[in-house]
């Protein structure tokens, strides 16, 4: 992800804890943070939204106002709201194996602009409110597409390309769409869980989640939603951002990750969450979490041991 001249600059740190290398743009800034020795309770905050992605190593994130204390690992996103205070531990940082993280600071004005564009072009049901950024902590696994986007953003911010500003604008817009989509999806799932009979779409989504380990029966979902097949797919993609089948697979993979963290056997977990083939399960899991199921299990076993 980080190569060339930027890598050479990182190898000559000015400080050993959170050495910062920054690349500015019009209303955003990308920074690469490297820590070369263990440290505890290092403070971090910004007056803008801060989108963080781990590259190597492990951080432990503490948000006192939310009583939040969790490991932050590669292939995960951690989004800090404006003026939210975070404290960070670096338990594994070493000089020859630094803990490295990306942080993209984005102005609230830019987020408001993207929200307005989404409201114009992607209107959703009134009960889910309009597109907007909710000022709250976000910590989630991100998929291969977001991982590829972050890698691409490092290249764009750090290279001296004649179209650099335009490409940064496009990449920041995509990152914000993904963030807003994630927040809206979480709100939607919470609403559907509390109000499964609010309307046909809610009932269908609730049914899909409740039966996530069963085959995805589109005809049944359409019947529950009281929609034609075309209308149901259109409504589902508009609100959830993907097809029912892709959503179901994501639910299965997240449940599988939770089960593996709890010590369940990988093969049994594969079949318990609805996969019919262990090879397909392993490929999908690695694409989602950046690690094979066995690597994921080993990482969490090591975390518990320490």
Give the C-level CATH assignment of the largest domain: Mainly Beta
Can you give the mean pLDDT?
91
| Strand percent estimate | 15-25%
- Indicate the low-confidence ranges by residue numbers: none
CATH architectural type of the largest domain: Sandwich
Annotated CATH topology of the largest domain: Jelly Rolls
Give, in spatial order, the strands making up the sheet with the most strands: 1-2-9-4-7-10
Q: What does the main sheet amount to?
A: 6 strands, antiparallel
Structural class: alpha+beta
Shape annotation: globular
- N- and C-termini, Cα separation: 28 Å
Work out the count of structural domains.
Answer: 3
CA radius of gyration is 21 Å
Number of helices: 11
- Quantity of strands, as a count: 10
Order of helices and strands: HEEEEEEEEEHEHHHHHHHHH
- Helical content stands at 40-55%
